[in-house]
Design a protein that fits this description.
By secondary structure, this protein is mainly alpha-helical. It is elongated, with a radius of gyration of 22 Å. It has helices at 22-45, 59-98, and strands at 11-14, 18-21. It contains 2 helices and 2 strands. The mean pLDDT is 83. 1% of the residues are buried. Strands 1-2 form a two-stranded antiparallel ribbon. Helix 1 (22-45) packs antiparallel against helix 2 (59-98). The chain has one domain (11-98).
């Protein structure tokens, strides 16, 4: 018995960079989610040195400490943007899958 013929995988252009299948897109988004959550977790649990007035009040040190405090919030903002972007791209996949495929050629 011959194997059933599958229609070609639906591809969508993402960010104008190239076309991807739904599976490849979801794998990439999953990896980005794990990476984003890992960065947030490390930033939350990373010990922060106390900033003392006087000798420790170096602007670079203040900036780095501010960045350590801001990373979890920036990570959450990044994840929120990714949720919106993923929703829009998955809707585009669904819309393209509903369109009738024309004859080949």
């Amino acid at each position: 018995m011959p194997a059933p013929v599958r229609p070609p995988a639906c591809k969508v252009k993402v960010w104008g960079l190239g076309t991807v299948t739904r599976r490849a897109y979801l794998v990439a988004q999953t990896l980005m989610l794990v990476l984003g959550l890992s960065v947030i977790a490390v930033a939350v649990w990373w010990p922060r040195p106390k900033l003392l007035d006087g000798a420790d009040a170096v602007p670079l040190k203040r900036a780095l400490l501010w960045l350590l405090d801001a990373i979890p919030w920036l990570g959450l903002l990044f994840l929120a943007v990714e949720v919106v972007e993923t929703t829009l791209v998955l809707r585009r996949f669904a819309r393209q899958e509903k369109e009738p495929q024309g004859p080949p050629g």
